Amino acid sequence: MAKLAKHPPSEGRVKFVLAILAVCLIIAGVEQFIGLPKFLKLDPVSHRDYKP
Q1: Rounded to an integer, what distance in angstroms lies between the CA atom of residue 34 and that of residue 28?
Q2: For position 40, what pLDDT does the model report?
Q3: 9-18 pLDDT tens trace
Q4: Is the model more confident about 29 or about 42?
Q5: How does DSSP classify residue 39?
Q6: How far apart are CA 26 and CA 18, in angstroms?
Q7: E strand or H helix at 10, and its extent?
Q8: Where are the alpha helices (DSSP H) in the chain?
């Protein structure tokens, strides 16, 4: 924390991290309230008899 206080990140780095966080929260919100499309969901029953 002392190092961070002595040498704070640049304004651009802070904006970049906040933008990444916002994108992650938007994706999580869409998944929570709308759900994922069927083609993105796993079907565990269909992979049960898979033998390579």
Answers
A1: 10
A2: 72
A3: 999 999 999 9
A4: 29
A5: G
A6: 12
A7: none
A8: 2-6, 11-33
Q: Residue 51: left (phi > 0), alpha (psi -120 to 50), or beta?
A: beta
Single-letter amino acid, residue 41: K
In this structure, what token pair is assigned to residue 11? 């304004």
Q: What is the DSSP letter of 52?
A: -
* Residue 3 region by backbone torsions, left for phi larger than 0, else alpha for psi between -120 and 50, else beta: alpha
Other residues' Cβ atoms within 10 Å of the Cβ of residue 25: 10
Determine the residue type at 29: G
Q: Which tokens is 37 given?
A: 């499309």
Tokens, residue 21:
């966080």
AA identity, residue 11? E
